[in-house]
Amino acid sequence: MAKALITTVPFGDKNRLPLELLEAAGIDYLVNPLGRKLKEDELADMISDFDVLIAGTELITDKVMAQASRLKLISRVGIGLDGVDLLAAERRGIKVSYTPDAPAPAVAELTIGLMLSLLRSVHVANAQMHRGEWYRHFGRRIPEVTIGIIGAGRIGGRVLRRLAGFGSPRILVNDIQPNPKIAPELKLEWVGKDEIYRHADIISLHVPLTVHTKNMIRREHLLQMKSDAMIINISRGGIVNEHDLAQVLRDGHLSGAAIDVFEQEPYVGELADIDRCLLTSHMGSMSVDCRTRMEIEATEEAVRFLSGQALQGQVPLGEYEVQRQGL
User: What pLDDT is recorded for position 65?
Assistant: First the structure.
């Protein structure tokens, strides 16, 4: 009997259909027994008897794959591939698929929510109220600020289209492949990242974690930003240097930040001591509908693969080339 290891958690909590798909196909499965993100050694110890890995954001390294003699498919629940050693998988004949479109609507909506919270100091007022402090904060509205979007792909593009509903803010956009038609209802200004750092009131990041974006925003970039600017990272931990951000915030520069993703998760670190840094627990994709769609699509890939059908979400060759550039 074919066997699937499901490491991403939660899985099947809000909709049991992904598990039912495996059962109907006669595929034996094990859901992550630790109930949390696995460490590299834990996954390596667990993976030896499985044909398919239905994976989350844990590290899937060559060391892990070396212990997985039966593994033939990694079906990633979500879009990020920074934790998967694609080149090791390629060498070992392991196919990799993902679900890039499924999480995008939920991530885009949370981005807008974080923008609103930062601009109106909702997170700061909440912390103060819980301490028994009453203070009415002045804020700003989206049409009155300059917004910087770095990365205008699946998620960044959706953020732009949702911003159109708020009127006509000035929007500066940076992407390696500018697409003037991405939000025709808005007058977008395609600029370099340095111009966004200098002129935007609120900056939102929507890029993958690669050799090119690791520590993309460090102290020197944060200090280029306006003293009352704000930054949102809902893409991947490691794109914004967390220590530099904490230092800059402590020094009184930047009026706020919202961080949903971290280099080490669960996060325990110095940003948690700063009220004007809004922290969420890597929950960008965690709407019931989008999370369910991600789980179903990743499971359907596993079923297709194990029944000899063609994959529909196989990772494109360009993603392998990005990792090769980091060698």
Answer: 98
Q: Which region among 64-68, 99-103, 180-184, 306-310 has the lowest average model confidence (pLDDT)? A: 180-184
> Confidence band (pLDDT; 50, 70, 90) for 326?
confident
CA torsion, points 117, 194, 241, 260, in degrees to nearest 10? 30
Q: Which residue ranges form the domains of the chain, and what is each CATH number?
A: 3-102+287-325 (3.40.50.720), 104-279 (3.40.50.720)
Confidence grade of residue 4 (pLDDT, cut at 50, 70, 90): very high
Choosing from 42, 109, 265, 270, which is the catalytic residue? 265
* Count of beta carbons in the 10 Å neighbourhood of residue 41: 12
Residue 123: active-site member:
no
Pick the catalytic residue from 158, 282, 291, 293. Answer: 282
Per annotation, catalytic residue among 236, 291, 293, 304: 236
Indicate the pLDDT class of residue 180, thresholds 50, 70 and 90.
confident
- Lookup: tokens for 257: 């930040």
Clarify whether 265 is annotated catalytic.
yes
The pLDDT confidence band at residue 69, using thresholds 50, 70 and 90, is: very high
Q: What is the mean pLDDT of the chain?
A: 97
